[in-house]
Structures are given as structure tokens and as C-alpha cells.
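Good morning,

Both structures are done.
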Amino acid sequence: MSGGLVEATSWDEDREVVEVRSPLDGELIDSIVGSGRHEVAAAVAAAHRAQAEWARVPAGDRGAVLARLADAVRDAADELATTEHRETGRPREQARAAVEAAAGTLDEYAALGPVHRGRSLNGEHDATDLMVHEPRGVVAALTPWNEPVAVACGVLGAALVTGNAVVHKPSERAVRTGVLLNRVLAAHLPEGLLGSVAGGPRCGAELVADSTLDVIAHVGSTAAGRSIAAAAAATGAKTLLENGGNDALIVDAGIDPEHAAEQAAVGAFANSGQICTSVERIYVHRDLAEDFLAALVEQARRRVFGAPAADEIPMGPLVAEEHRAEVHRKVRDALDAGATLLAGGVLPDGDGSYYPATVLTDCRPEMEVLREEVLGPVAAVRVVDDFDQALREAAADRHGLAATVLTPDMAHAQRSWRALRVGTVKINEVFGGAPGGAAQPRGASGSGFGFGPELLDEMTATKVVHLVPPVLPGT
């Protein structure tokens, strides 16, 4: 494997320039010239040429290549984590843990890819009937800034191990991290198999409009996902969309309020609330609301900027100043509409797009902090009279990514996972789960499997083969 990355980094006309500023201090890190239509088309064409040969590589050999990719990501973990830290503000240790998780995902697909399913059918005695899975062709992967390595490795790994080629566009807010990852991976891949394009919305629009793409996989905002779906409807490309979420947390009566507050804080404040499955809205039973809120406020106050003390937890900045302004607007709008501020909610002094862990209560269903994704460290709390109200209001949402229920009542647990129309329901733990799980988001949160073994099915097409002996002359 010679290792050649097809990079597209110059715009043909009216060049689109992406300024990369660090959210840590606002410093200009780099200016990226966006990929133009000719560069995007060249990357897609190169991917088509490389894919035909790659599809002929035995599945076991493709799996071995993916195992080498996992090792390469681990070898580059420090550089990837440092780049992500500088570019997105994510604390370095958390970024490095995400890189290790990304390598683990590549290992998973290295093992699963070679044994990806196929089956024989029961037909006529003298016939052979098979269902086989073939690579779809060329996959456009558009990946987010809040998990620029882990998500990319999942999508790229599943596409490559099943025999596809990929053209990868990382988010413009994590473009340096994405391009670095592409270079690390491409060093172990055939020429042209992994294309890299860089830029902002214009570059993304050029890529998804390419009529020769077979799959478009996008992880990002709902608005971008809908635009991509419209483009794919015109070209016929299959779409995999994991888009914004508005994940609910239900805190039922009988749960320890201190433990519930710890879970809520992890869900709402991890990575400064910038995780697709962050807790966005909390429904807490009135019987324990007072104790829960007091404990949650204490959890919020433990989240600090800079070097933490022994009992404190580091908080990174939000990814960009304009993103912080939008988070703060949603908080102020909630306060103006009658919500009560218990912690945070004030723009800090100094450089960087930092925002404090924020707790709101007295929230009502019509408030934007309960209706829409905030994607910041904001815990919006609504006190409810009983579990039925909590479940009813949690389920009444247009998004469908994930939800969590903390309850001692197994009947409530059973009811909740059936009633919540989301891809993932977590009972008594906000984050976690066994490896290999897969889920399909619903509604405004997208469609298609975005991870797990089932993502291999999404990256392949099923073909039925019916084979009977030939009829020869004289027979």
C-alpha cells in the first residue's frame, strides 16, 4: 500500500477561506482555503478509480489494513489530541481518550468486516441461491467538530472495510484535526482510496451535489442534514444522517437525588455540553426536586475553567464565539420567559469562548431550552408532578436521538423505553453501553444506522444470486 491522500485545498473562483481560531483565546491558528468544485470532483473521481480495485481485495486483507489504521491512530494520538484541543478547546486528556476510542472502533470493524453477513437460500434442488453483500461504491463522509476523530473513524472504518472508497470532509471548525487524521490513515491505504476535501458550507454543498456518489454519511446539525437529504434526493445517493438531538432525562421518585444530580451533570456538562447525546432537558419528580436541584447546582459549581483543584472538574470553552453567543441567547430568552437561574448563565471575563455550567429551573415546554438542542453546558429543569407527566412531555419532541430514565421502578423502565421514540434509551445511566450496539435516530435527528455492526449493512448493497446448471447442446 503506497499511501496517497488525494487532498483538495484550493478554490477555483471566489475562494472560500475558513479562518481557524482557537476557542481557548481567540487566536487565529490558520486560514484554510476551501476545496473548489474541480478539486472536489477530482477527489471523487480518484475514489471511484481506487474503489474498483479495493473491492477485489479479500475481506480478511481489508480487515488487516483496518487493524493497521487503528495502530496508526494510536501512534498519532498525542498529535491528534493536541490539535483537537487547540482547535476546538476540548481538554487535552478528554480529546486523547476520544482518540483511543476511535482506534478501538477501527479494531472493531477490522474484526467484523471480514465476517460481514451473507447467506444461502433454500430453493430448487439443482439451483444455488445466495444473498451477498457488495460495497456500494464511493461514500462522502461529512463529520462533526465535537467528535472529529471518533466519529470519523467509525464512518471511514465501516466504509473502507466493506470495500468502499471515501471522500472525507471534516467540519470547518475541526478542519486541521480532520486533515491530520486523513493523512495518518491515508499513509496505509492505496492511492486515491481516501480523498480529503476541506472548507465550509460551499465545499460541503459541492461534495454532496456530485451525482456519482453512492452514499452520503453526515453527522452534524439538523439543518445541514436536511439540506444534504434534499441534494441526495436529486442525485439518488443513499443517505445516513445522525443529526441534532434534544435528549431528555427523567428523574423518577425514589432515586437518590445526589446520584441523579451526578448523572445529570455528566450528561449536561461533559465536553461543555457539546455532545450529540448530551442531556438537554430534565424532568424531575416534585418529591425530590429540591434536593436534586441543590445537588445539581453544587455539581455545576465544581466545573471550572483552567486548572482544577482536587474536587473540581475542568471545563473547556465552547467551540466558537458565535456558538457561545447563541447558547447565551437561549439562556437569556428562557430567563426573560420566566425561568429561574440557579447557577452559571453569566458570560465570564477574559479571552476564549468559555461558558459556565448553567442550571435553569421553572422551565416550561414552550421555552426554546426545552424545545430545541442547546449544545452547551445548560441543564434546563422542569419539575413534574408524577412519572406519567414526565414521560408524556419527554416523548413530545420532534427529535429522536436518545433519552435517559433514572427510576427504581422496573414497570416505569419498561414503559419508558417503549414510549420514547428515540434511537437509544438508557436506564439508570446517562452514558455507557456494551460495544457493538447500534441505533437508528428518528425524526429531526436523522435516519439510518450510524455505528455498530449494522453500519456495515448500510455501507453495502444486498444482491440475490440465482444459479442453475447451464443447458448444453444435446441435453
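Second structure follows.
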Amino acid sequence: MTTTYDLIVIGGGAVGENVADRAVQGGLSTVIVEAELVGGECSYWACMPSKALLRGGGVLDVAQRTPGVREMLSGSIDVPQVLKRRNSVTSNWKDDGQLKWLDSAHIDLVRGHAVFTGPKALRVTAADGTVTELTANHAIAVSTGSLPLIPDTPGLAEAEPWASREATSAQEVPSSLAIIGGGVVAAEMATAYTSLGASVTLIARGKLLANQEPFAGEKVADALTKAGADVRLGTSVERVETADSGEGHTLLLSDGTAITAEKILVATGRVPRSGDLGLEAIGLPTGGWLKTDDSLRVLDADGAPIDWLYAAGDITGRALLTHQGKYQARIAGDAIAARALGRPVDTSPWGVHSATADHAAVPQVTFTSPEVASVGLTAAEAEKRGIRTRVVDYEIGWVAGATIHSEGYEGTARAVVDEDRHVLVGVTFVGTDVGELLHAATIAVTAEVPLERLWHAVPSYPTLSEVWLRLLETYGRPTA
């Protein structure tokens, strides 16, 4: 039997849910196809469990630097309680609550793995072998996300390394953990597992958090070292040897040293989850990112949009962040409904059906201790784009709100100013709880608020937000 919907969404994570929800609100009949848990990677194996693992250490760090509170502390984390809380955050890897939401949102669900059989057509195979044929009146949207990249380092596969899923869902903390990689997952898991009592070694070929402003990775590396982690930058793993018993691994590094660890976590990047979708049936290469226009229509080999095929989230390679994927999803769902029903479609820059922010105003928080919060361009990225810039730095620890926050508060704020337009094109904060400063920066960058107007956005005293005033003062107040 073949069932027809206006829209079929492949992937029931946060991104796919948002595509479906917007399309239903726009008047389209919609079904989600999901082979695993509805709610996806973010809910069960990424954003939510990782932050639950990090929260205890972050709170303890602040408490230990707060007189009157630190005297009450035992100085250690109750690891079983942290893991129990993490399990609760993931609903113990059950999606009952998500199914109730789908029902309330009038979105149908088909369980199974989807493969394209032709334009607007899918075959879905359930775990028990049951096959469902689906066709779309108007569109299919792909929101299948990404997978961890596992390098072909000799001996690594035999060591059965963790990837991000295993790290965020582990029910026990290993005595020692070697983390390969220098990006967000590596930095966050190094922070979490160090706070949970593991002996952590982080090994990165280059710098830590290399895509951020240089001082961000430097401050996080320093904090990890002070917390007891062994941070090895500028080196790589050449070979892994596993003990005959299968317990314990030796990692031989390019600098001639070696380390041993009970577990290995590989956090060296992501690849698109598109290799098993049958894309060849619709004339697209198998296994690559699905490139899109700004209304999230997939582009064919000639760069032309396919009018019935959309993609959103990690699978596009645009910005591998849940919140940015949900932003794309809202735009895609609205665009699908508008085109299907003959409504106006606005794909102009910053238009209602254009994911313009992907190019200029992507916010991100790395939940290390200290946190790293950034939006827009780094100074180096702005220079590469030919923007005439001025960089303004200010130490967050100098503002009154930081003094009250905790003893010895250390942090840095950086604003990257477009000198020709007198607007911010990038902002970075490093420090405890700076993630709460980021949305103000995101609004300033997205709206291209002139610096002259920002002088009238008065930060409340005494809060960390006072750093905004100090950045403006450092830059210099405009004269009439």
C-alpha cells in the first residue's frame, strides 16, 4: 500500500520536528519517518545529555570560588547522581513524550529506514521488515543529521573507541580517558569527564577550538590543565595498541610519546548521514552533504534548486548546531507550505524564507569551564572577507558584576567592528556563564545595530552585561 502526504520529513530529530510543525501550521498533511528515537541526536546523545554531564562541574567551580558557600562543600561530585540526572534529562532514552507531542501537533509517524525510490517517493523498512511506500504531493525534506568521523588510524578500530554517543550515554566513568580531537565535543567532554574524576588526556593535531578566536582555546586549555587534564596540542595519534586482555589501550603519538587509557573517545569531526538514503535514485551523489539554497531547497549537480526536495540541519553542512538547524527548519517548513499553496515566497536577504543568518550571524556556546560564547565572524574571518575591521578587547573580570559573581573571575570579551559601516560583525565572550550574554550580541550582529545606537542600550548594574558598555568605551564614543 502507498500512502500519500503533502510533505514527508526524513528524520525525527529536533530539526525534522520543526520542519513538520511549520508545514502543518501552514496547512499541509505531514508525516515524519524515523528509524530511531523521535527527538533525535540532540535529545538523547548530544546537546541535552552532554550539558547534564557538564552542569555539576560548572556549578561546583563557581561554588568553590564563592566565599560562604565553598566552606560547605565536600569538594567532590556525586557521580552516580550526575549520571542519574543525565538519564532523567534523556527520558531514559525513551521517546514517549515526543510521541505525545507529535499527536498534539497532528504529525503522523512512520517508524523505519527511508530510501528514495524516485522523485517524491520513498520506501520505508521497519525493524521487523515491514515495508511502507510513501509518496509526497509537494515535497520531501531530509533532516537526517550527521555521524562522527572515525579516522583510519592503525589499531583504533580494534580499540572499540567511543564516539559522542557513547561518551554522553555512558553509565560508568572510566578511570582514564584519552580524547582525540580539538573541537567542541572534545573540549566539552574533557571538561565533563575531568570534573567526574577521570584522568583525561586530550590530544589535538592543532589548537583547541581552532575555529574560535585564539584566546578562547587558550583559556579553555589552561583551565583544563589547572583542573588536572593533560592537554597535548600540536600532536596526533599514529597508532593504537590494545592489551591482549582487551582492557587498556596505548596511544603512540607523533611527538614520540605514548599515553595509556582505559577508554578512547574520538571527536575529530562529523560526516553527513546520507550514504544510505538511496540518493542515486533521484540523481544525486551518495554520501555527501546536501547543498541547499537559502530557502533550503537541495541543489542538483548544476547548482539549480530541486523544486520538491529540501534539507535542513547538519545534513546541509551549513552550520552543525541544533539551534541553527531548527532555524533552517522553520524557514524550510514555511517555504514548503508557501510554495505548495501558491503563497508569496520571500527569499531576499533576511527575508522570511531565507536562512541568511547561516552566513553572518551564527551563535554558538561551548559549555566548558570557562564557557565560550560567540556569534558572527572572528577577526581572522572578517579580514578574509575583506572587511576593514577594528578589534576591541575587554577583560570581563574588571566589571562589577564579575566581582560579585565569584572570586577571581577571569574572562575576555572581544568585539569585531566593521569600520566602514560602524556595526558589529562578530562578538566573542569567554568566562563563566557568558552564554547568557550571547543573545544580546546575536541581536546586535543580526540587526546590524549601529554603534551610535548601542550607546543607548544601557546595561543593568551590577551584571556581567556591563561589559557591553566597557567595550563601547574602549572603542570610543562617537562625536557629533
